[in-house]
Amino acid sequence: MRFPNAATGVKRIFTAQILQLIGTICMVIGCIILISGGATAVLSKGSDAGLVAALTQAAGASIFLVAYSILAIIAFIMQLVGIINAKKDEDSFKSALICTIIGIIAPIVGGLFVRVSPVVSSLCISFGNLMGLFVTIFIISGIIKLADQLNRGDVSTKGSNILKIIIVIAAISLILSIISSFMLTNTAILVTAMILLAISMILSLVQYIMFLTLLSQGKKMLLES
Predict the structure, then answer these.
(1) Nearest-5° angle of CA 212, CA 10, CA 18?
(2) Cβ atoms 214, 162 nearer than 8 A
(3) Which of the two residues, 187 and 150, has the higher pLDDT score?
(4) Strand positions, DSSP E, 108-167
(5) Closest C-alpha among 9, 66, 6 to residue 34
(6) Does an H or E element contain 91, and which?
(7) pLDDT at position 38, please?
(8) Distance (Å, rounded) from C-alpha 142 to C-alpha 88?
(9) pLDDT value at position 182?
(10) How far is the C-alpha of 79 from the C-alpha of 18, rounded, in Å?
């Protein structure tokens, strides 16, 4: 094995992404149950049976949301450790680590400005999300460079193509997300905002799946080297 640290690191990053995917599914299920519970409470017009049903659904939703939180924390720690492992064999992962750290700090700073300046707070949170994109980009770049050193043109080419597509999708998704966040303040165009937000989420999911397939192939390549 030519790059044992990178092999261990990419394997952990891949596992972290799987956990994040499971966590996201839990979050979606939890939100659906929560919304259903709210609808039940409204339709029941405050009846005791309706309130009990709504509270039961809320309790069920909380289980999924707590599961999401736990899985997200585990996934984040595992990805961080994986990046630290992989950076010993490829410098691109060092850049990914720096972006990860900035991505942690930015939302914290944003939280300090919530009451002082909501705009600054929003910008900090958006900047933190942008750092998440750069982490993905640098991880992909690292896999591409490792593939080149291992003479795996198939993985390198796939990585380059996915990198271009992900950048385009991320840019479109970010623009739609920003537009929808401004539109949510106007009730007259709330429906349009929700549609844009949904499109943004779908594009993000496509981006995520493509990243996951490359991680899987990169992990296999490094373990076989």
Answers:
(1) 40
(2) yes
(3) 150
(4) none
(5) 66
(6) none
(7) 66
(8) 11
(9) 62
(10) 11
**Lookup: tokens for 211:** 């990243």
What is the rounded distance in angstroms from the CA atom of residue 137 to the CA atom of residue 145? 12
Q: Which of 45-49, 104-108, 217-221 has the highest mean pLDDT?
A: 217-221
Rounded Cα distance between 36 and 51, Å, is 12
Residue that is written with structure tokens 């005791």 in the block: 48
Give the pair of three-digit tokens for residue 76: 């984040």
Instruction: Write out the two tokens for 44.
Output: 């029941």
The C-alpha atoms of residue 179 and residue 61 are separated, in whole angstroms, by: 29
Is the entire prediction scored with pTM above 0.70? yes
CB 140 within 8 A of CB 163: yes
Place of tokens 């900090």: 124
| Sequence-separated (6 or more) residues with CB below 8 Å from residue 162 | 140, 210, 211, 213, 214
Return the residue matching tokens 């982490």. Answer: 135
The token pair at 1 is: 């094995």
